Amino acid sequence: MRQPFYFLLACLLLGTLATNAQDYDLDELRHKPDSNSLKVAVPELDIRPVTLPMSALDLQVIYWRHWSSFGINANQSSFSDNWTGGGVNSISAGLLLNHKSDYTRKNTNFVTELMLQYGKQKNKDQLPRKNNDRMFWDNKLSLKVSKSWSLFTSLTFESQFDLGLTYGADGEITDTISNFMAPGYLTESLGIEYKPDNTFSVRFGTGTARQTFILDDRLIPRNGATRFGVESDKRFRNDLAFQVTAFLDRNIAHNLNLKSRYNLFANYEEITDPSHRLDATLTASVTRLINVTLSGILLYDSRLDNDIQTSQTLALGLLYKIPR
After folding, report:
1. Structure pTM?
2. What is the DSSP letter of 286?
């Protein structure tokens, strides 16, 4: 009888404990570390201006480019006294200096080009004669308005160094026909320019003025005559005209360069009788210094002569270029 009693008593105690028992969440029973257990020191900010050193390279943009060339051409021939093939002993020499500077910044471009040429030839038993003589200086300022078109203004000077003479049958001087600044030309032009690349360009000078000077008293026209378009007893003439100027400077083959300049000048008062001038030079480079040049000039100006004038030169010489 005691065993059932003790069993019943145990059941009552367990039931009472179960009624008073509390529910516990296992996550709450897990140990949580102290969030401040690992101390992290926060540094104080120190903000102040810092001066950076200048670059050691100190790079600069150069807007100018320059090209120069110096040349000398020579030709010589001689024959013995008993040479039966005919011929005249002769020697000739020529000097040239060309310089070009180009300034380009954004849409603004300035180009100045100087060409100086002078040469003489001496034949046996004759006085020395010129075979080349030219001074030419061209300056152009342009403002690009599209990819290939620009507005431009230019100033050009042209003359010669030495006397131009005529000779008689005996080789003696018979007359003086030209000199430095007789004639001399100063041309101002304003218009538009077409330039598709760096080797070719055409200027259309709708507003062009040219002054012709005769500063040698011996060449001033007299007695109602005209010379270089200048009227009798005058030293100066001014023309208002339309002008077209084309430039070409292109390598047409390996070591072969063609450079030419064509100029049309039409006085508005004589628009049907314009003057034309074409200068062309073909240069073949044999080595860095030795070259062969073939030069030609085609000129028509009714003020100078009613027929077309031509000049041609073939020469072997030395030409030094900067930069090389």
Report:
1. 0.80
2. S
Q: What is the DSSP letter of 227?
A: B
Element (H, E) at 197: strand 184-197
Which CATH number is 64-77+88-322 given? 2.40.160
Cα–chain center distance at 189: 19
Give the pLDDT confidence score for residue 51 in this predicted structure. Answer: 78
For 283, 294, 307, the CA distances from 133, given in Å and listed in that order, are 19, 16, 21
Structure tokens at 218: 């011996």
Q: How far apart are CA 145 and CA 158, in angstroms?
A: 30
CA distance 113 to 136: 8
Which of 272, 268, 277 lies closest to 304 in space, CA to CA?
277
**Stretch among 114-123, 166-175, 176-185, 201-210 having the lowest mean pLDDT:** 166-175
Measured distance CA(48)–CA(142) in Å, rounded: 50
- Closest Cα partner for 281 from 265, 297, 258? 258
* Average pLDDT of the residues in 48-69: 80
CA distance 226 to 231: 5
What are the strands, taking DSSP E only, across 214-269? 236-253, 256-267
Domain residue limits, the chain: 64-77+88-322
Whether the per-residue pLDDT at 17 is higher than 80: the answer is no
Q: Please tell me whether residue 28 adopts helix, strand or coil conformation.
A: helix
| Paired tokens of 66 | 């320059």
Q: How far apart are the first and last CA of the chain?
A: 132
Q: What's the rounded Cα separation, in Å, for the pair 19 and 66?
A: 108
> In whole angstroms, how far apart are CA 284 and each of 59, 70, 118, 250?
38, 16, 20, 12
14 phi, psi to nearest 5 deg: -65, -35
